[in-house]
Amino acid sequence: MPKLSYGRAMAWLAEQQPERPALRHEGRVVTRAELDAWSHRLARAYAERGVGPGSLVTIALPNGAEFVAATLAAWKLGATPNPISSRLPEAERRAIVELARPALLVGAPESYPDVASVPEGFEPETHGDAAPLPDVVPERVRAMTSGGSTGRPKLILDTQPAEVDPTVAENGMRVDGSILVAGPLYHAGPFITCWQCLLSGGTATLMTRFDAEEALQLIDEHEIEWVLFVPTMMQRIWKLPDEIRSRAKLDSLRRVMCTGAPSPAWLKRAWIDWLGPERIYEAYGGTERIAGTIISGTEWLEHPGSVGKPPPGRAIEARRPDGSRCDPGEVGELFMLPATGAGSTYAYVGAEANEAFGGWQSVGDMGSFDADGYLYLADRKSDMIVTGGANVYPAEVEAAIDSHPAVRSSAVIGLPDEDLGQRIHALVDAPDGCDEATLRAHLEGQLVRYKIPRSFEWVDAPLRDDAGKVRRAALREARLPGGGGGGGARA
Description:
It is built from 13 helices and 28 strands. By secondary structure, it is α/β, with parallel strands linked by helices. The chain has an 8-stranded mixed sheet with strand order 3-2-12-11-13-14-15-16, sandwiched between helices. A 4-stranded parallel sheet has the order 5-4-6-7, covered by helices on one side. Strand 8 and strand 9 (about 155-160) form a beta hairpin. Helix 1 packs antiparallel against helix 2 and helix 2 (about 30-50) packs across helix 3 (about 65-75). The termini are far apart.
């Protein structure tokens, strides 16, 4: 079948099986026909407010059916959706709106000059005309947002057109299959995989916010086949009481895809032992889609800790600061090149690409390759801590801390130190209690001495959001002199 625009693909699927569920969310079921008609009504209302081919539509809605309908409505007009968190502070949201200059803002409580808006729960007054719209293929499929934690947001415009063959499933999914959307739709992984499912005729079950026990219940209740979890979610599920986790059958589950952050080796092995290596996968790749990797659990057992190899046509290399290629096992900055050439997969708004070495580009990640060409991630270049002349990657230390049964989440940052240059400072979220001596004893069996934090700070809330992201730069800034935060150890 030839590729169709996203809007036409959803309409075609609705014509085939109009009553088949497309979405489930908190007890509500939306059929293919209902989603198609709803998005038509919204699209006509959006067009009246100035949305058309090439426009950006900023969507500030929580996970739910309305988010999906608004996104599809933008595509039906040839526009590009720009999903953002519905819980952003107003200053961050304003900065994004000023950068994006969208034709329409959907769901935000505030209004902005020269930007049309509709509130959450918006429905055209007359319930709108659900008749088909003229078919159009959006030139840019999505505009994700990044960098808001630094106060300097940027847009990542995906330059592929919004078209698909609805008879072909992607990413190990099945045509007419089922997916659990456990993460926030304003992040690329949940957004992309939700639509991969919907546009191949599948049913997406959406979670408003991730809850470990509820996720297991939904998988069994709706016979979910495919799910994307970030390591934080996998850790929260693994640390559920045994009697809760053992109740989950998970017989329908064909693939668990882990992405969004490096998966600690202990956690990956635990899931492989639980569900079997053939159901556990891990993927690495930026929103920019320059290049990426994927690895099955079976491969991972042969290359523990790896995130896999890049597919044919896409290249990744670890390079030293002088541009030379790293030897196997040597950590360097990761530079990438897509098969279609430098800069062909995305465009930034509000930032410049980090390009060098004849068009190779970096998104700031560090890693190394083994002799077989398998990639091992280290951390973000900007997060690396240099202490006493040694490089320490926070993700490695966090993985060791998080492996303690009492720890729910952690974040590791570097703070100024007159002697060492930087000292390693750990923020630890252990709601059931864990003292410093116990945690230090645990880390001594996990890390070389210079990687063990010099100071600890105990916090009362999770340090990672539902997408598994931690704002290390903001945590560090708050603990510098004048930053208004803490920084000392406390029991």
